[in-house]
Specification:
3-stranded parallel β-sheet; 12 strands; alpha/beta; 359 residues
Length: 359
């Protein structure tokens, strides 16, 4: 069948399951032969009784050809495996629908910052053993007058690509520190803020952060600045100056989405980071992929040597939480514990978590 014709035939499906090993041919050949029509295919779920490592490579191969791959299943497949996969897809699709919006101009996005249309939601971070709250990651949202709540995907990349990342970062830091000062929490609790690489290269960012902390009389260890692996291993003098000044002041530093960049051990060794965040793409496969488990174990061992905390992102099931604890990872965040919450909802969630105590 012609690739375009097959694409049209299956285009009405919500999800297409493809086995890598079939009686007449293998799934790899099918993917290659119909790659020209990949854009017309529905999201794929690849499955196989072969080694999990082969399945993972096949997923990467399909994505390289232009297919959208929403998951992979190792045979024999149990009902709960499919239910867990579909449940995760439903959550992600619900979020992506909220992110859909008409394109905005950079001027309109900058104006939104100045008009106070941006706000923060917080996703709690917990002790994976006791479930005691340890902190929360600040996630920016836009309360658009016409389109409702917009997720970062609709406006943050535009701000970052037009030199306005610093304005955004300063807004988020200022609001997050203000909110942290308002929280009444016994014991250590901190807020984390993710910043773009260009912000770290800016000469005044560290001084701005230190000034905001002082203005709200907030201990610096209650703030963690996160940056992607690529951003934080930048060897420029400006970036290193910012990192060192923040750490000297007592602010925590975190490498976000670790494992997706290209940092070397030498670069990690000389950086003043206090935390490493495991990317959700590895965490989500910890119960099904030997490669993901090996990578996570390696990061945990390395972090112990660097005296850094490891935080696991994207924990959605009890099985994943238990597997992480068994491997020695004791801090994490994800829908298993809480979705991103408005400030008042976060305060209520914290009060409830404290009242319940360890579990």
């Amino acid at each position: 069948m012609d690739p375009a014709e097959l694409g049209e035939l299956v285009g009405g499906c919500d999800l297409l399951f493809l086995d890598l090993v079939m009686p007449e041919r293998d799934g790899i050949d099918v993917l290659r032969e119909h790659a020209a029509g990949a854009a017309k295919f529905p999201p794929l779920v690849l499955m196989s009784a072969l080694d999990a490592g082969i399945l993972e490579t096949a997923v990467h191969f399909a994505r390289q050809l232009g297919y959208r791959v929403d998951g992979a299943l190792c045979k024999p497949i149990e009902r709960r495996d499919v239910e867990r996969l579909l449940d995760g897809l439903d959550r992600r699709r619900t979020g992506s629908q909220s992110a859909t919006a008409a394109p905005e101009t950079i001027e309109r996005c900058v104006a939104a910052i100045r008009a106070g249309e941006l706000f923060l939601r917080y996703q709690p971070q917990v002790d994976l053993v006791t479930r005691r709250p340890l902190g929360a990651e600040a996630l920016v949202r836009w309360a658009h007058p016409e389109q409702g709540e917009l997720l970062p995907l609709t406006f943050v990349p535009l701000l970052e690509s037009h030199g306005a990342a610093s304005d955004l970062a300063k807004f988020v830091v200022a609001r997050a520190v203000e909110d942290a000062a308002r929280l009444r929490v016994d014991g250590p609790f901190r807020v984390s803020v993710n910043v773009h690489a260009s912000v770290l290269r800016g000469g005044d960012f560290a001084d701005f952060v230190i000034g905001v902390l002082a203005a709200h009389k907030t201990p610096p260890e209650r703030l963690c600045i996160e940056a992607t692996e690529a951003a934080i291993v930048d060897d420029s003098a400006d970036t290193l100056q910012t990192l060192v000044k923040l750490r000297m002041a007592g602010v925590e530093l975190s490498i976000d989405d670790f494992g997706t960049g290209h940092s070397t051990l030498q670069q990690l060794w000389r950086l003043p980071v206090s935390e490493i965040k495991l990317d959700r793409s590895f965490v989500s496969q910890i119960t099904t992929s030997t490669k993901s488990r090996a990578l996570i174990l390696g990061v945990l061992q390395m972090a112990r040597g660097l005296r850094s905390t490891v935080v696991a992102e994207g924990i959605e099931t009890e099985e994943i939480r238990a597997a992480l604890v068994t491997m020695g990872c004791t801090v994490g965040q994800g829908y298993l514990f809480a979705r991103p919450l408005a400030f008042d909802a976060l305060a209520a969630w914290l009060a409830d978590a404290v009242s319940r105590g360890p579990r």
